[in-house]
C-alpha cells in the first residue's frame, strides 16, 4: 500500500512508563511536580541573587546563571505535559507541538553541553594563564560567548527536527517515552529512517563529545598547573572551584555516556521502563541538584546567603521590638 493511502497522524500521546499501574499515577505526578518546583525555585533564586549582588558580576557566575536559565527552560518544556499525563491522564500532544518539544529538549541538551564547554574554558584560562585572564575573559567577553552558545545551540537539533518533521507518520501515535525525542519518534515513522537517524546520532555525538574532549583536556592542564603551585590556601581554593564545576560536568555526562554505550554492550538490554527512568534521571537530576552544588561548594554564594539570613533575622527582631513597644504604650 502506498503512503498516500495512509491517514497522517495529527497528534501524539505521551505514554510515559508503560508498566506503571494506575494507582501510582497521582504519586508519580506529585513527584514530577516537586522536581519541577524545586528546579524552578532553586535556579531562579540563583538568577535573582546574581541580579541583586554586584559582587557576583564575574565571568564564572555569568556561566552559572546561563546554566540556571537553561535548566529552568528544560524543565518547563519537559515536565508540564508529563505531569498532566499522570495527574489528569492527558498525554496528548499536537503534531507540531510534539516537534517543538523535541526541538527544545534537544536544544537545551546542546546548550548545556556548550555552557559546560565555556565553563571549562573559563577555568582553564583562569588557572593556566592567571596574569592574562582578566584581560582575556572580561564580563563582556563572557556575555558574548554565552549569547553565542544560546544562538548556535539551535542549529544542531534544528537539523534533526526539520528532517523528522518531513517524514510520514501514519501508524501508531503512542510515544513510549517521557517526552518527544528523536529516539521516541523514530519508531513511529512509516518509512526507513536509518539515514535520518544516523545523521541525528552523528550530530548528537558531535555536540556532546567534542566539548567533552576539550573539557577533559582542560582539566588535565588545570590539575598539572595546580600541582605546580606552592602548597597553601591558593591551591585549595583552586581545587575547590574546579571540584564544584567537575561535579556539575560529571552529573551531566556520565549518565548519558552509560545510555549511549548500553546498545554496544553484549547481553545488556534495557526494558522500556528502565530506559525511560534512565532518560528521566540524566535529564532532570542535574537541573535539580545544580543549585545545591553552587550553594554548598561556592564560598561567595554561601556568604551571601548568610548575610541575607542575618538581615532577615535582624528585621524580625526589630519588628518584635516595635510590636512590644506599641503594646506597652497602648497598655493601662
TrEMBL record:
- Is Cell cycle found in the keyword set? no
Annotated keywords: Cell membrane, Disulfide bond, G-protein coupled receptor, Glycoprotein, Membrane, Olfaction, Receptor, Sensory transduction, Transducer, Transmembrane, Transmembrane helix
Q: Which residues cross the membrane?
A: 24-48, 60-84, 104-121, 142-159, 199-226, 238-255, 275-296
Q: Where in the cell is it found?
A: Cell membrane
Per the similarity annotation, which family is this? Belongs to the G-protein coupled receptor 1 family.
Name the PROSITE patterns for this protein: G_PROTEIN_RECEP_F1_1 (PS00237), G_PROTEIN_RECEP_F1_2 (PS50262)
Question: One cellular component GO annotation, for this chain's record?
Answer: plasma membrane
Where is each G-protein coupled receptors family 1 profile domain found?
42-294
Name of the featured protein: Olfactory receptor
Give the primary localization class.
Answer: membrane
Highest taxon, organism lineage = Eukaryota
Is the Glycoprotein keyword given for this protein? yes
Gene Ontology MF: a single term:
G protein-coupled receptor activity
Organism phylogeny? Eukaryota, Metazoa, Chordata, Craniata, Vertebrata
Topology relative to the membrane, per the entry? Multi-pass membrane protein
